[in-house]
Design brief:
7-stranded mixed sheet; elongated; alpha/beta; FAD/NAD(P)-binding domain; 6 helices; 5-stranded parallel sheet
Length: about 325
Amino acid sequence: MSELRQVIIVGSGPAGYTAAIYLGRAGFKPLVIAGALTAGGQLINTTEVENFPGFPDGILGPDLMENMQRQAERFGAEILYEDVMSADLNGPVKTVYCSGGLEFSARSVIVATGAAYRKLDVPGEIDYSGKGVSYCATCDGFFFRNKPVVVVGGGDSALEEAIFLTRFASSVTVVHRRGELRASKIMVERAMANDKIDFVLNSIVTSINGDGAAVTSVTLESTLPEGVSGEDHAEEIATLPAQGVFVAIGHEPATAFLGDSGLAMDDRGYITVDGASTRTSIEGVFAAGDCADHEYMQAVAAAGMGCRAALDAQAYMDNLAALNNLE
């Protein structure tokens, strides 16, 4: 087993790297297990980021993450590009087990593994990601000024995205696989009352089409049995012009590796924390970013939560040191 560390940060991205910056400056030399393929989180796959404070001209997502990583390393953080497969978090010493048989132990752990957007898994989705396909209206809506867009989904998040996009897009079409929207009544009423929003129900997107450089349309298919008609649904196969496709069918927190750890999570797999703090159900374990926050899910919010997790972890370790000195 390797040396006992003060703190291990599982996950990178704005939450993990911000926690590493704060803990590094405090002299704790954190180990950041950043992930073998997902280091930097979702921003690695993002083009222009215009709403992160301090960059008036915007910054590319990968550049922002590289800057954060370098800043964390400058203050003594160690970055390891491995995946954590499981964790034993109970007791005063926490141990995480990585791919390749590596294991590391620490007095405290910050989980900052984020969440992933659920994808449609249809042709064209990956090809046009960043070229018209988006998973965040708040992040990318500005780029679709006076353009027709499609929002895929039927829950509150999808309708919130649709309503937000009406500030920019020439038209917004909500596509949902069922005949009724899953969103709350008030959200449905708001969306229905907006003249810029149309609905195509009982329909699914089967492909996202483009000219190689940008999205031009989506192919829709009816979910109704053959010969059954319904209002506002696609034909058996139909093409809908669109220059933007916003996928809003939910997220999946990256917390599967915690399944046997005993850490309290909600029914969707998000880590539960104590009020406004980042303390979890296990003493000495803290959570930050999208793996614990399914409400805001913005880079700046994750960074702020990473700061709070670092301060909570530091207070925990300072308290441990004080107790040991008293003994």
